[in-house]
Amino acid sequence: MVSYRNSVKIVGDVLRIADESGLSGVNVTALLRKANLSYGRLAAIAGNLINAGLINEQEQEGQRIYVITSRGKDYLQRYQQFAEVANSFGLNL
Questions:
Q1: Which residue, 7, 10, 61, 87, has most beta carbons within 10 Å?
Q2: What domains sit in the chain, N to C, each tagged with a CATH number?
Q3: What does the alpha-carbon distance between residue 93 and residue 83 come to, in Å, rounded to a whole number?
C-alpha cells in the first residue's frame, strides 16, 4: 500500500528540516531533497509558512535560505506532541 503525506505532515516535515538546520537555515535544493517535494509544491508551502510567520526567507550568496522562527518552533513542538498522541491511539497522520 502506498502511503501519501497530507499537507499537515508535509508542513511538519518542512519545519523539522528547517529546525534541524539551525540559525544558518536550509537552502531550497537541500529542502527539496530532504522533504522529497517538487519545486512547485515547496514554493506554495513555503509561501504559506512565510505568511503565517513560521519561517523566514533570506538571501545568502545568491541563494534563498529558509530559517524557522520561534513561532515555527512552537508550532513544530505542538505538531510533534499531537503526532505522538495520535500514534499512541494507532492513528497515522
A1: 10
A2: 7-83 (1.10.10.10)
A3: 7
CB of 31 within 8 A of CB of 42?
Answer: yes
* Residues 66/16, Cβ–Cβ less than 8 Å: no
Name the strands in the sheet holding 55-60, side by side, starting at the edge strand that comes first in the sequence: 26-27, 63-68, 55-60
pLDDT digits (tens, 9 = 90+) for 43-68: 999 999 999 999 999 999 899 999 99
Question: Sign of the C-alpha dihedral, residues 33, 77, 90, 49?
Answer: negative
* Residue 38 φ/ψ, nearest 5 degrees: -80, 160
Q: What are the E-state strand segments in the chain?
A: 26-27, 55-60, 63-68
In the prediction, which pLDDT does 4 show? 77
> What pLDDT does 1 receive?
53
**What would the mean pLDDT of 66-93 be, rounded to a whole number?**
94
Distance CA 27, CA 67 (A): 9
